[in-house]
Amino acid sequence: MLRSQPIILFCFISIITISSVNAQQYQRIVSLSPSLTMNVYYLGVQDKLVGCTSYCEIAKPDNKPIIASAVKASIEKVLSLKPDLVIATSIVKSETLEMLRKFGIQTEVFPTPKSFDEICSQFLRLGELLEKQELADSLINSTKTKVLDIQDQCNWSQAPKLFIQIGAKPLYTVIPNTFMDDYIHFLNGENIAFGLTKGTITREAVIARNPDIILIVTMGIIGNEEKNNWEDFEEISASQNDKVFIIDSNMACTPTPLSFAQTLDTIFELLK
Question: Across-strand partners of 49?
């Protein structure tokens, strides 16, 4: 019995040590995605963010070090920041992610979500990683309540037909089985791109499908040009009823729970 006590004591100390390490885990985070950077801020752990991409607008006021573009990261810059966690999306090259892992850095990949539900589940997963489960749960619950509340108000006599443009040359639109298509789903609308498996579409096809509202994500000067182009097609219902709008790409194209709800609310107000 006496011989077993040191072993029990050793195990107890080991458990305490492991728990202590876990509690202090991930003190230096590098984000390779604007959406993940936003989620880090939403979870209130931005003080642990030591590096991000040039597209992470939310982090710019804090002058966080830039270590990546949209898809390409500088391995040297990442290593110089000595992160203990790198978070990335699946658009980052697999070679980059494997290289970071070879250097012993914990690297977590979040695939591009295909729905609002996937956005929420990924946010919860990040909350668990960063030991912010309770806050993540609370934000998800409030966001889902807002989304469903908006959907309940969409009692249209006829489902509005929406065209969401996310590219100009070539013309590119939101297709089914993407998180942006869920904007249309929760608005009880109809996506004029139904049946398409690729995002490219012709102007003739858009005119033929006659959308009730056209939403163009911000593309600088090109966005304004596209708005003017669509307004010239008087045979389209959206043009006839002054329902051609530009919406913020940083909000609409960024898959986070809060930006999804904000975008949905914005589109709902434009539809009314």
Answer: 29
Domain with CATH 3.40.50.1980 in the chain: 27-112, 155-271
- pLDDT means per 10 residues, the chain with 272 residues, are 40 36 73 97 98 96 92 92 96 93 96 97 97 97 98 97 95 97 98 96 97 91 92 96 96 96 98 93
Structure-block tokens of residue 44: 């209130």
pLDDT in the model for residue 149: 98
Cα–Cα distance for residue pair 108/110, rounded to 1 Å:
7
| DSSP-assigned beta bridge partners for residue 221 | 219
Spatial distance between the Cα atoms of 226 and 228, rounded to a whole number of angstroms: 5
pLDDT at 1: 40
Which pair of structure tokens corresponds to residue 45?
């752990």
Could you name the CATH architecture of 155-271?
A: 3-Layer(aba) Sandwich (3.40)
Reference 119, options 89, 149, 97, 92; nearest CA is 89
Q: What is the pTM of this model?
A: 0.88
CA–CA–CA angle 236, 167, 153 (5° rounding) = 60
Architecture of the CATH domain 27-112: 3-Layer(aba) Sandwich (3.40)
Backbone angles phi, psi at 213, to 5 degrees: -145, 140
